[in-house]
Amino acid sequence: MLTMQWTAGFELGVAPMDRTHREFVDLYNAVREAVDGGFLARVDELIGHTEAHFEQENRWMDQVRFPPIAFHKGEHARVLDWLRQIRGAAAGGDSAGARDQLAQLPQWFENHAATMDAALAYYIRTTGYQP
């Protein structure tokens, strides 16, 4: 698993979103660095954070009536399902397989932040909504 580096490109101009994204990157790196004995606990922390992260964005989308809300919420649901499957593999003793799957998370995050979340951040800023 590669380290996920926070870059200025992840900054979307909505402070609470940017903070949450930075926390996500930090938690991913904590999972990456976890030894097998602490790996599952770190995965659980990442999933808990991601649930709260997505609930927060979903709430904002509801409140601003974000036009592509169904698509964005669907992506959130798919990623949470995938993370829970990875957790199941780790809990079943396949931490190597779980790590292999989690290694795809940086690429997903980079794409999601640059597309879906950037569109949401733009919409939030243009509507004047204060999350």
Can you characterise this structure?
With 131 residues, this protein is mainly alpha-helical. It has a single domain, classed as Four Helix Bundle (Hemerythrin (Met), subunit A), CATH 1.20.120.50. The protein is built from 5 helices and no strands. The protein has helices at residues 15-33, 36-64, 69-91, 95-102, 105-127. Helix 1 packs antiparallel against helix 5 (105-127) and helix 2 (36-64) packs antiparallel against helix 3. The model has no long low-confidence stretch (mean pLDDT 95).
SSE pattern, N- to C-terminal: HHHHH
Largest sheet: none
CATH level 1 name: Mainly Alpha
- How far apart are the first and last residues' alpha carbons, in Å? 33 Å
Write the layout of secondary structure elements.
Layout: H1 15-33, H2 36-64, H3 69-91, H4 95-102, H5 105-127
Helix pairs in contact: 1-2, 1-5, 2-3, 3-4
Identify the notable features of this structure and list them briefly.
elongated; 78% helix; 131 residues; Four Helix Bundle (Hemerythrin (Met), subunit A); single chain; mainly alpha; 5 helices
Please sum up the structure shown.
With 131 residues, the chain is mainly alpha-helical. The protein is 78% helix and 0% strand.
